[in-house]
Amino acid sequence: MNATDAKPINALSFDIEDWFHLVGIDSVANRDRWPALESLVQRYTEWIVETVTEAKVKATFFMLGWVAERHPQIVRLIADHGHELGTHSYWHRKVCDLDAAAFREDIHKSIDAISSASGAAVTGFRAPSFSITPGAEWAFDVLREAGLQYDASLFPGTRNDGGYLCPPGPHVMTNTPSGIGLPELPMSVLKLGPVRLPFSGGGYMRLLPSSIIRACFNRFHRQGLPVVVYLHPRDFAPDCPRVPMPPHRRFKCYVGLDTTKEKLRMLLATYRFGTCAKVLGLDGA
């Protein structure tokens, strides 16, 4: 085994939603308008599948049920290439804003849409905006009862829409109303003294230079931890439509959109990756 093989296998994941599935942005909040808006999701998801296939890597695609119903060809493409399918909910609503009944209905509707389009099992869940927060632990029981094998929603740091302090690597979430655990794969947040630095997805990856991203990967690996990469089709889209939003959100949504393709290629060439289920040891490998 060489030095590269000795490093942890990292989780490569993509949240498949369209550019207008933005949480908390009034200009795209009306769901009735979504079908009429220009869509980027098919074009950029096809690019993602082509890129990871060329790298001979299997990834996890957390599908929005709304997208799966309208673009079933995307779901079939992902499944046909042997990638893992998870759910990212149906409507892209924050979990902490729902009750258990509404969340249960949403999860089952999303699983039905994804499995109908793909003919494949739906294995895991990632919450929109990492929105399983303290007080919403009932969500883990809903996920388990729906037949899902794991969760990948916790963000072990402070953020506007989420945040849940937890161990930094794969573990079993046991703080559930039922007391029954569910495997958890939290986001990668590097602790640097009092600072917690997200580095491996979304606007954080688009903002940070490649040298910093590699340094954070290597720091995680020295601790024996895998890194969880999470990206969206819109992260690769310099042509993403602009809509009115507060300045801080505009910066986070649009910074570095022309850098993400090369950063993904760099990561694929430098580190080992697999699905979320593989990193959790749930795929039989």
Describe this structure in words.
It is a single chain. The protein is globular. 36% of the residues lie in helices and 14% in strands. It has one domain: Glycoside hydrolase/deacetylase (TIM Barrel, Alpha-Beta Barrel). It contains eleven helices and eleven strands. The mean pLDDT is 94. 45% of the residues are buried. The strands form four sheets. Strands 1, 2, 3, 10 and 11 form a five-stranded parallel beta sheet that branches. The chain has a two-stranded parallel sheet with strand order 4-5. The chain has a two-stranded antiparallel sheet with strand order 6-7. A hairpin with a 2-residue loop joins strand 8 and strand 9.
Under CATH, the topology can be stated as: TIM Barrel
Low-confidence stretches: none
Helix content: 25-40%
Largest β sheet strand count, sense and barrel closure: 5 strands, parallel
Give the rounded overall mean pLDDT.
94
Radius of gyration: 18 Å
| Run of helices and strands | HEHEHHEHEHEEEEEHHEHHEH
Amino- and carboxy-terminal Cα gap: 17 Å
- The total count of strands amounts to 11
In DSSP terms (H or I, runs of 4 or more residues), the helix count works out at: 11
Structural class: alpha/beta
Number of domains: 1
* Percentage of residues in strands: 5-15%
CATH architecture: Alpha-Beta Barrel
CATH superfamily: Glycoside hydrolase/deacetylase
Shape: globular
Highest-level CATH class: Alpha Beta
